[in-house]
Design goal:
The protein is mostly helical. Helices cover about 85% and strands about 0% of the residues. The protein has helices at about 5-25, 30-45, 50-65. This is Similar to amino acid transport protein (Partial length).
């Protein structure tokens, strides 16, 4: 693990916490699951070239899928 992986993990983890709390308070399932995914993702993905695009997709999911739920 290097510094960039650690920093991206902290950034995506904090975004995940924000989405998790928002989804829990609004009873919205998509932000809630996206938040859980963002918080758990750095534990399983150690390659920075896979971590960043996956994190971007998980952050974008609640905004792109908000009209479908």
């Amino acid at each position: 693990m290097n510094t960039s992986t650690l920093m991206w993990g902290v950034i995506f983890g904090s975004m995940g916490l924000a989405l998790l709390l928002y989804g829990k308070r609004q009873t919205a399932i998509i932000p809630f699951l996206s938040g859980i995914g963002l918080m758990l993702m750095p534990y399983f993905i150690s390659n920075i070239f896979i971590l960043v695009p996956t994190g971007i997709v998980l952050v974008a999911c609640p905004f792109l899928l908000k009209n479908r739920a």
